[in-house]
User: What shape does this take?
Amino acid sequence: MSFKLNEKIKFPKWPIYDENEIKYLTDVIKSGKWWCGFPGMHEGEHVWSFQEEFAKFQEASHCIAVFNGTVAIESALMALDIGLGDEVIVSDYTFVASASAVVATNAVPIFCDIDRETLVMDVNKIENLITKNTKAIIAVHLAGNPVEMDALMEIANKFNLHVIEDCAHAHGSRYKGKRVGNWGDAGTFSFQASKVLTGGEGGAVICKSKDLADKIYSYSDCGRIINGYGYKHDTYGTNYRMSEYQAAVLRAQLQKFPTQHELRNKNANYLTKQLNQIDGIKVMKPTPGTTELGWYIYPIVFEPEKFNGLTKSQFYKKLKYAGIPTDDNYPPLHNLDCFKNIKLRKGINYSNSNWGGTKSDNNNFPVVSDIYDNSVEFPHEVLLANKDELDNIVKFIKSMKETN
Ligand SMILES: Cc1ncc(COP(=O)(O)O)c(C=O)c1O
Assistant: This one.
């Protein structure tokens, strides 16, 4: 195999910033207003402005900024009154946070297998998982690819279930013309360092209902009421407020987002056309009905027998050796130690879940287990590269078929 490609391949580093981020951050420091305060007593203005700007971008009625994407999910669940004795259906193929946020509320996550082509929750498998205890579904738009939201909402309405969209990967994605996060009761976002919109850490919840927005706000700001007295704590709440530093950086990043988003889309389309011509490679398929895709990661599935029996770890090793940035894909949740060996909350009954011990057997989650074993993924900065770099990836993957 030719490793000459090594010297040629140069990918952009992430995050990308300029004087604007530095100016916004410095302004916060110089202002002396290092926290956002609360409604009725604003201190810094960046958090409040970011909430408005992000709501506008995501075409949402309300946005509540919090300090990460995990607590964004937890805040939405708590505001929807999900808790002890409740079950929440979650995709099995996601970062642990989509399920650990459920565990944090004392509810029980139930894992749903994925669709082989789109890699997101297979909506046809949801009904079988519904029991008398099911209260909500968390739809994870993995890699920015939307879950089939119209079909999912039909099921949710039929069984009277709440829906939270975990949009941690899906800033800017649209399904059937509507931005993700606006289909269900609430949409949650992460702005952690690897995300396409980042403040290092950060999160947000968007929603349509003013009543729900007020509850989410209250839970994430110590049980305060919008415009109420700061030491009046109406309900149980905690402190998940976003900091002014995070919001300052996020406001500068949001200005850069549309250009980067457009380039990622153009490059993803180009790369997909090239890679789909390689026998033995299949790129994640946008869910039918997708009208815009956020492309947080770029997953590909390979057939080992078409690559001389190459294993996934060998595939990754070769890409890394060639200097192509890669991203480890998520181990399916049913197989994580915390679920398989049930190392979770004290006093909660997990015995009716569809995971733990032998229930975590891969045969019970056949699609995700197969996909996990035979797929690799690239981080989104690969999609910010130029055409020559993308061509090099294609050439390199083709060359992997010839040698082992
Ligand atoms: C699908 C998904 N949901 C939730 C989260 C949690 O976000 P955070 O890391 O900001 O807490 C992540 C983070 O990577 C994620 O990938």
